């Protein structure tokens, strides 16, 4: 993205200008480190690109829902996209305004619907007719008439990892595009719902703006058809999905370039645009620091055993995803090929396989890069491992925004 916040200065890996070696000593490992400046900069790249359009940027909370991250974005004026009552609670706890929240998600529970209605969220993105009926019922009970949109499934291939593609007809998301007009007709005059929007999200880690533009065409055609039958749509929510570079060799389109054609197409359309970026705001703005515990060699392989594991960062195990891994101190040692693995009792517990890396000895700290999105957010306590702390670096200062969990945290709420 636009700020290169992580990099070497005099062979020491830094966040902004702060050497991460000192930070790792003070905070301990494993630990997540975020550049507040990069998060803000990435958010601003979106708002700059869209400044001539009637728009709102709703940061997708699922990518990283830590209060210190959310409050940074609240201060920038961001709205939020949430998919659970818990995420809404987090936004409010971080000082965010529920009136700037869209509530998405395929399985909102009755209590989540009630909570969101009481908080007065900006809009519900409904994903099925039964869900819209459930929302209408609760709205009636509470004497409310929320703004809603339907999430449409456009049957478009986003060409990404199958687990994070969401816009094809076999996926669980949204209402089928072929049935959309009929469904809108059935809800247009509902006394308890105010039908104002169409929403869509075709997937995540998308490099090519082609499927995005195709989706926009499909959706604007639907909006035209709805207009002809007197169902005026004022709000278009196109979701998130812009890819980030996980490999040094990868190039991603800038936010400006990716959205260029989209903004051209929407100019003069008289529609309020919402985008829900997550990964592209926080992904490149975070690293996971981990210390080498042991080295081990088998007949077949060289292993670097580190103190972070799949419970801290599950992306490599779950999606076979690649994260660059670099030593905090670069010394030009010869490189080796090794598997970088954690302490968890599963063969699937790895951060990298067959990776070329500077020969790293026990005690050294490594940085797992581009870990700001879907890193901590997907962390668990598997193997009864306390989750790591999170640290925010801003203007060369760092602040712990989430403490390392303790053993007492591990058993909170349990009884014998
Ligand atoms: N809006 C909706 C409705 C979504 O489902 C998502 C992501 C986003 C926005 C944000 O998309 P982004 O800009 O972050 O691509 N755990 C996976 C990613 C799952 C994404 C789920 N939905 C990973 O680690 O790659």
Short description:
With 416 residues, this protein is α/β, with parallel strands linked by helices. The chain has helices at residues 20-27, 36-49, 67-75, 85-93, 110-119, 129-141, 177-187, 210-228, 255-266, 279-282, 315-319, 407-410, and strands at residues 6-9, 12-15, 18-19, 31-35, 55-60, 79-82, 101-103, 123-126, 147-153, 175-176, 194-199, 235-237, 272-275, 286-297, 302-306, 325-327, 335-341, 350-358, 365-368, 390-394, 397-402. Helices cover 28% and strands 25% of the residues.
Provide the fold topology.
Blueprint: E1 6-9, E2 12-15, E3 18-19, H1 20-27, E4 31-35, H2 36-49, E5 55-60, H3 67-75, E6 79-82, H4 85-93, E7 101-103, H5 110-119, E8 123-126, H6 129-141, E9 147-153, E10 175-176, H7 177-187, E11 194-199, H8 210-228, E12 235-237, H9 255-266, E13 272-275, H10 279-282, E14 286-297, E15 302-306, H11 315-319, E16 325-327, E17 335-341, E18 350-358, E19 365-368, E20 390-394, E21 397-402, H12 407-410
Parallel strand pairs: 4-20, 5-6, 5-13, 6-7, 7-8, 8-9, 9-10, 9-11, 11-12, 12-13, 15-17
Antiparallel strand pairs: 1-2, 2-3, 4-14, 14-15, 14-19, 16-19, 17-18, 20-21
Helix pairs in contact: 2-9, 5-6, 7-8
The structure holds ligand LLP.
């Amino acid at each position: 993205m636009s700020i290169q916040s992580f990099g070497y200065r005099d062979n020491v890996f830094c966040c902004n200008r702060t050497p991460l070696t000192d930070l790792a000593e003070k905070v301990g490992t494993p630990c997540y480190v975020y550049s507040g400046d990069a998060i803000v900069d990435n958010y601003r790249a979106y708002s700059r690109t869209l400044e001539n359009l009637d728009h709102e940027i709703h940061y997708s909370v699922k990518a990283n829902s830590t209060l210190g991250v959310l409050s940074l974005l609240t201060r920038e004026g961001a709205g939020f996209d949430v998919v659970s009552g818990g995420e809404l609670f987090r936004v409010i706890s971080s000082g965010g305004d529920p009136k700037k929240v869209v509530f998405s998600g395929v399985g909102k529970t009755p209590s989540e619907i009630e909570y969101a209605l009481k908080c007065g969220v900006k809009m519900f993105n409904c994903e099925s007719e039964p869900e819209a009926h459930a929302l209408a019922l609760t709205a009636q009970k509470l004497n409310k008439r929320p703004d809603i949109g339907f999430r449409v499934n456009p049957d478009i291939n986003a060409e990404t990892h199958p687990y994070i593609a969401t816009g094809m007809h076999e996926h669980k998301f949204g209402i089928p595009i072929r049935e959309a007009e009929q469904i809108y007709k059935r809800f247009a005059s509902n006394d308890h719902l105010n039908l104002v929007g169409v929403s869509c999200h075709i997937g995540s880690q998308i490099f090519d703006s082609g499927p995005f533009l195709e989706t926009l065409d499909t959706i604007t055609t639907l909006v035209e058809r709805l207009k002809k039958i007197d169902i005026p749509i004022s709000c278009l929510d196109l979701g998130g999905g812009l890819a980030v570079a996980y490999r040094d060799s990868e190039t991603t389109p800038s936010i400006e370039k990716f959205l260029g054609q989209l903004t051209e197409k929407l100019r003069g359309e008289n529609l309020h645009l919402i985008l829900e970026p997550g990964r592209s705001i926080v992904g490149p703005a975070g690293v996971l620091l981990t210390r080498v515990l042991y080295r081990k060699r088998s007949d077949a392989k060289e292993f670097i055993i580190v103190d972070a594991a799949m419970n801290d960062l599950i992306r490599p195990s779950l999606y076979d995803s690649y994260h660059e891994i670099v030593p905090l101190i670069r010394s030009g040692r010869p490189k080796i090929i090794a598997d970088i693995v954690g302490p968890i009792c599963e063969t699937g517990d790895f951060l990298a396989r067959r990776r070329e890396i500077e020969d790293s000895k026990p005690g050294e700290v490594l940085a797992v890069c581009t870990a700001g999105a879907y890193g901590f957010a997907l962390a668990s306590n598997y193997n009864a491992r306390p989750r790591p702390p999170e640290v925010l670096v801003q203007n060369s200062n760092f602040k712990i925004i989430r403490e390392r969990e303790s053993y007492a945290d591990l058993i909170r709420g349990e009884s014998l």
